[in-house]
Structure formats: structure tokens, C-alpha cells
Amino acid sequence: MQRKNFTEVTEFIFLGFSSFGKHQVTLFVIFLIVYILTLAGNFIIVTIIYVDHHLHTPMYFFLSMLSSSETVYSLVIIPHMLSSLLFHDQPISLAGCATQMFLFVTLATNNCFLLTAMGYDRYVAICNPLRYSLIMSKGICIGLVCGSFITGLIMAVLHVTAMFNLPFCGTVVDHFFCDIYPVMKLSCVDTTINEMINYGVSSFVILVPVALIFISYVLIISSILRITTAEGRKKAFATCGSHLTVVIIHYGCASIAYLKPKSESSVEKDLLLSVTYTIITPLLNPVVYSLRNKEVKVALQRAMGRNIS
Description:
GO cellular component, one term: plasma membrane
Order of helices and strands: HEHHEHHHEHHHHH
Strand order of the largest sheet: 2-1-3
Keywords: Cell membrane, G-protein coupled receptor, Membrane, Olfaction, Receptor, Sensory transduction, Transducer, Transmembrane, Transmembrane helix
Membrane topology: Multi-pass membrane protein
Low-confidence stretches: 1-7
CATH superfamily: Rhodopsin 7-helix transmembrane proteins
Protein name: Olfactory receptor 10J5
Strand content: under 5%
InterPro entries: GPCR_Rhodpsn, GPCR_Rhodpsn_7TM, Olfact_rcpt
Helix content: over 70%
């Protein structure tokens, strides 16, 4: 009977924001604007880093990789969500749902570990400035980026393999994309093992990077405090400000979304957290790095100046 129910489910339908009724058009406009700004902002960041040789450093290499990952991350989720808001009850096939979950987990994990690599880069730049170019060589940078992506692939394979071997009895996902818990709720059988896998993977993906970044910043702060001049300390802190802002918001939202007790979950809270994590956070990257980072602003001014000339 479980196999029969499993094979009968060929597609899912998202409830999404159906409870918002007449406000769905307003939400569509708001999310569309945020989506366009996210794509444009990340595209500008990647382009500026590529064309300006002053930004051809490990720090901005990681930033360009993060912006590229955030762009694809947005493409995986938001277009289908916008379509559902506008046309209602847009179905997604079982294979499409598995693909969306696979890409979502891969890129979300990749982003977490890219932020960790950026934290390590800041640690080396401040604590070992004389050996910076030797330690953060091109090979090491590429290795850290590839390692982040491969870790994401492994986590995604674990999630999707465990999830889509379950028999499903329902077709209505109480969410706006194929997130792990909303899809898991549609299973006909006990999902304790899947919940353990999800919690284990989430803990690894969130807590390990957070611990590594925390250690990096403890060493960074202790090194900065040893700088004798106030100007030197200010400059050192400034190089970490943008990264630290993104880290706090990114991991804060992820921790609340995926590490909170199941008893504290509710549809409204989960929707709000998911909107923050999947729609607002990708916009945060270009906004923070363009407003708080002097080198990016100068590079943008140089590019605009050349175009005007």
C-alpha cells in the first residue's frame, strides 16, 4: 500500500501565500522588486570584481563566488514562487521538487562554507599579513571554493536520497518551495530517521562554520587589540565589518529556521523565516558589500567614470 501511494504522487502543489488572499498581487510586486534588485546587485558585484584589477584578491574572489552562488540560489526558488503568486496552484513534478531541494541544499551549504572561507581569509590578512600572499595562494582559494561546493553536493545527496525514498500520501505542500520539513510532512510513514538526518546535516552545516568563524574572529580581535594606533585598529576592523554583518544575519536566520525545536514550528513563522532566508538574505550580500566596503564603492566609481568618459 505504501508503494502504491508513493507511485501515485507525481506532483506537488504549493499552498505558499494562499492564506494572504487579495494581498498576493502586492506580495508578487514586492518580491519581484526584491528579486530584480538581488539579481542586479549580485551581477554588478561579480562584474566589478572581474573588470577591476584592484579587486583581484582572495577576499573579492570569495565574494564573487558567493554572489554567483546567491544568484543561482535565487533562481532556484523565486521564479516558481512568483508564478504561484500570480497564477495560483502552480504544480511542480516530483522530479522537479527533488531537483529544487537538491539545488537549494547544495547552494545553501555552499554559501555557509564560503562565508567560512572568507572569515579565514580575514584572519590570515590581519594576523599573518606578511605571509598572506603565500598562504592565500590561488590554489588554496580554488581549493576552498571547490571544497565548499563539494560539501554542499554531499549534504544534498544525503537529504534528497533519504527524502525521496519515502512514500508520499499528500500532494499539497504548506510552503512556497520544496523545503525539507514541509515535504517530509506528506510522508505516509514514520520520518524519525529523516528528522535525525536533517538535524544532523543542519547542525553540521551551521554549527561547524559558525565555530570556525568564531575562532577566526577571536584571533582577529586579539590581534587588532595589539595594534598601537587607533587608526590602525579602525582600519583593521573596517576590513571585517561587511563580512561580520553578513555572517550574523545569515547564520542567525539559518539557525532559527533549521535548529529550532519542532514544537515551536508554525506555518506563519516558518513562512516568515523562509522569506527572510531565501529572498531577503541574497539581497543582503550586494547591499552590505556595496554600502560598507570602500574598495567596492571606489571600484564602482572608477567603472562609472570610464563609462561616462
